[in-house]
Amino acid sequence: MKIESYHDTGKFLQMLSKESDRGCALIAAAAIDNRLAEAIGKHFVDNKDVSSKVLGQSGPLATFSARIDVGYLLGLYPLSTHRDLHLMRKIRNEFGHVAEELTFESAAIAGRCSELRSAVDIPVPGSRNRYVANLFFIIGTLDACIQKAVHLYEMKEVTDDERREANAIVESGSFDTVRQKLFASVARD
User: Counting Cβ atoms within 10 Å, is residue 22 exposed (0-12), middle (13-18) or buried (19+)?
Assistant: First the structure.
């Protein structure tokens, strides 16, 4: 379920409340991972083919971990949120890769949940509630990034005339002219 509005947030919260702890952790992490991919993609030039390759299943930003790191490096959130996202990823992995019964109150999971700090000012009892509170805080942060993001520019293709002109300038040895033309071209776009 994609969260598009406050109404959807309520539905999503209701859906999570019906899930087991394992289901809650896995679905919540998937929601953050998808929202993170969307926030990162908003900072790419407008090229859906390349963007989908980079963010797709075999792309360099296919993993939750890579997306968490790149989101931080792009300045989408502070180091504390970066840390919380990795904690949430580890919690998701624990639930996803351990075949024994786990709950949010299991020692390893509860310990990680107690370290979550994004929603530290929201007093919530229990590890599951802390996890979900941090989930919604981080989704809100990512939503703000998505709303304010604009593509900086779209690379324009160089025309044959521009290429010939640049070659002539390079052959003449007037590199200052090349630099001026380059900056003029970037400024007009």
Answer: middle
Residue 165: pLDDT band with limits 50, 70, 90: low
Quote the CA–CA distance of 60 and 72 in Å, as a whole number. Answer: 16
Interior/surface letters 92-118, b for 16+ CB within 10 angstroms, e for the rest? bebbeeeeeebebebeebbebbeebeb
Q: Which residues contact 184 (CB under 8 A, 6 or more apart)?
A: none
C-alpha 133/C-alpha 28 separation (Å) is 11
pLDDT for 151-160, tens place per residue? 444 445 556 6
H or E element that contains 189: none
Phi then psi dihedrals of residue 35, to 5 deg: -65, -35
Q: Which CATH architecture does the domain made up of 6-148 adopt? A: Up-down Bundle (1.20)
The whole-model pTM stands at: 0.75
